[in-house]
Amino acid sequence: MKIERKYMAHFLNADIGGAGGAGEYVRLGKDLEEYSPELSANVEKKNNILGQTSVVIDSYQKQGEVTPYYAEKDDPLFEKLQAILDGDLLLDSLKTDIVEVKLWGDEQGSSYPAVKEECYIEIVSYGGDTTGYQIPFNIHYTGVKTQGTFDISTKTFSEGA
Fold first, then answer.
1. For residue 79, which phi and psi values (nearest 5 degrees)?
2. How is the chain split among helix, strand and coil, in percent rounded to 5?
3. How many Å apart are CA 24 and CA 11, to the nearest integer?
4. pLDDT band at 64 (very low <50, low <70, confident <90, very high)
5. CB 116 within 8 A of CB 99
6. Distance between CA atoms of 20 and 95, rounded to whole angstroms?
7. Does an H or E element contain 57, and which?
8. How confident is the model at residue 161 (pLDDT cuts 50, 70, 90)?
9. Of residues 31, 14, 28, the one with CA closest to residue 68
10. pTM score of the predicted model
């Protein structure tokens, strides 16, 4: 049986550049028709004198594109994105985390299997057309992952054993 896309949830920590506390997670997707992190593998291929090819994949540079992102008053993610723009923030001021929640997984109450990954936010542009104020951005994953569960009712991540 196919799994519907809505069951792979992405919760971005709106406490971008924060102190690393509990965070304030916002689910991506309200205005998105698609969110698919691209893996961009680092691939090395070598041919030897026997006519054989060896392939080595030694890393991924994972990135996701959030386009469009419509600003909404009192949305914590919008407020932080606007603060990044207003303050020309850089470096660790752009660091946060994203949690991928598998809503088809083994539910334990309102908690589901999840992976939290450290990431950085890159704002691509701002403004937009007559449909509304937009701040599209990219999410750059670092590869630093933590397995655990995510409670969708309280929007909290718990590290696994």
1. -60, -40
2. 10, 45, 45
3. 9
4. very high
5. yes
6. 10
7. strand 53-60
8. low
9. 31
10. 0.87
Calpha distance 59→152 (Å, rounded): 31
Residue with tokens 């207003």: 86
C-alpha torsion sign, points 14, 143, 5, 41: positive
CA dist 41 and 22 (Å) reads: 31
Indicate the average pLDDT of the chain: 91
Whether the CB-CB separation of 152 and 112 falls below 8 Å is answered with yes
Model confidence at 22: pLDDT above 80: no
Tokens matching residue 136: 């599209």
141 contacts: CB under 8 Å, gap ≥ 6: 37, 62, 63, 64, 98, 117, 118, 119
Cβ neighbours around 111 below 10 Å, total: 20
CB atoms within 10 A of CB 61: 13
SS3 for 3? coil
Tens of pLDDT, residue by residue over 120-144, are 999 999 998 999 999 999 999 999 9
